[in-house]
Amino acid sequence: MQFASMAKLAGVLAALTLALAPHAASAQDKTKIKVGISVGNAESTFEVVKKVAAREGLEIQLVVFSDYLQPNAALAAGDLDANAFQHVPYLESQIKARGYKIVPVGLTLTAPLGIYSKKYKSVDQLPNGATIGIQNDPSNGNRALLLLQKAGLIKLKPGAGENGVNATPLDVVDNPKKLKLVELDAAQLPRSLDDLAAASINNDYAFKAGLSLQKDTIAVEDPRGRYANVIATRAEDKDKPWVKKLVQAYQSEEVRKFIESEFKGSLVPAF
């Protein structure tokens, strides 16, 4: 009787395993995913990524966003499977502010931040009292202030802007030219450039506005700095096979060569 009961139990477990197996496979092995990206250079880059991924059986549908808030909200809500538009410090600030369970899964490229101007050719030409636009989100605003400090235009109090502590204009302790720092939404900065002496503009928005990192900037971030962009997914998905395929497609030699030839140093592969 005991042997018969055990055999019956084994049969039930085997049947249950077979019943669940297709569902487990379908949940893990996606063949079609939605990826959120920002407007501009990411669109052309991901067209190459799509082709590489397709050869490995992964179809990518792109969802293009015009701001930096929606892609993480959409990913957290399940409307996207992944996004690729942000660096880790920005993601960390969003997680802290909104509680997202989102993690980076692979490096993409570095988009150096620039201080752009249509009126001046160098930081030395900026007049006293000039108005400088910077991003109003904590992470990119921090980048802008660090870049202004690197250019010798301002000085931040010790520790501000480093080790995960985002600086704000209130942290400026020395401002020899009495620059007026105006905080604006990142997407508005290119449109506001005509009314400003200069502005800190993210690479994708600058690209879309027809601005050149080489020709239109008076200060530029180190292209190999800590602000490399990443592919991000929900924490629960990070080890799934389709994530590995997505990252490998982006980090392929084909995509590397495209970035290097297409953007000529304004964007740098981070992998």
From TrEMBL:
Residues 1-27 form the signal peptide. InterPro entries: Lipoprotein_NlpA. Keywords: Lipoprotein, Membrane, Palmitate, Signal. Pfam families: Lipoprotein_9. It comes from the Bacteria. It is found in: Membrane. The keyword Protein biosynthesis does not apply. It is a lipid-anchor. Gene3D superfamilies: Periplasmic binding protein-like II. Its main location: membrane. PANTHER family: D-METHIONINE-BINDING LIPOPROTEIN METQ, D-METHIONINE-BINDING LIPOPROTEIN METQ-RELATED. Belongs to the nlpA lipoprotein family. This is Lipoprotein.
